């Protein structure tokens, strides 16, 4: 029987998830349909209940419902608990289970770009939901140090307070963007832009003193001054499309028990 999946959000028209999951299904021979579901802003829970009552197998959750999905679940994966957000839903023994595949999507995207995360040092710029979702999976992948630089320092400090105890082998530290500008020898293997600056067309100025081997922009499909600066320095970089595909593959594997190869769906 054809398995039914959907991505739920508001807005939802732009979502690439159906085309990705249909491509994975074709590659792996899974029989599925994957739809876009526009939920009213006050109707998320009802839409989820109706989808599963109709026999739906799994759902992806996108903006602005990831926190509501987190609150709705009967059980959560460890990484979803730490992220405080859910992007993947399914049912098990009548219970609604929530997971978060965004961070593993980033880990797999970085690896697909040829990066070794074991003992790596990473600078993440931004301390919002996108950053919260990726710290634990990066630490699980062996990253030794993560510095979080944020415009509002207190937000980065709060994030570290919440998460450090869950990642004892990864040293987290917080700094403000101003401190980053004045850091004389800031050196990292990877720098990740997890701010929404490129989404709103804002410029993110990287200090001259900052050195790195690879730049990853979590956003995709938008002009990014962050990527422009990596290019100007002659450094390798990638945008968030590979993370998008990576999180979709992780959800597909949870639901269908078979894992498509990320490299078959991105160009690196
Ligand atoms: P998301 O869920 O995508 O992480 P968010 O929780 O709204 O979205 O967080 C947005 C992040 O981008 C924050 O770290 C924000 O910095 P503040 O905490 O200081 O607000 C950062 N951000 C947004 N626009 C920015 C800009 N123009 N320059 C620097 N940081 C910016």
Automatic annotation (TrEMBL):
It is an enzyme of class 1 (oxidoreductase). Gene3D superfamilies: Leucine Dehydrogenase, chain A, domain 1, NAD(P)-binding Rossmann-like Domain. Signal peptide: none annotated. CDD domains: NAD_bind_Shikimate_DH (cd01065). One of its GO terms (cellular component) is cytosol. Pfam families: SDH_C, Shikimate_DH, Shikimate_dh_N. InterPro entries: Aminoacid_DH-like_N_sf, NAD(P)-bd_dom_sf, SDH_C, Shikimate_DH, Shikimate_DH-bd_N, Shikimate_DH_fam, Shikm_DH/Glu-tRNA_Rdtase. Its EC number is 1.1.1.25. NADP(+) binds at residues 78, 126-130, 150-155, 214, 240. Residues 240-262 form the SDH C-terminal domain. Shikimate binds at residues 15-17, 62, 87, 102, 216, 247. The keyword 4Fe-4S does not apply. Belongs to the shikimate dehydrogenase family. This is Shikimate dehydrogenase (NADP(+)). It comes from Acinetobacter marinus. The gene is aroE.
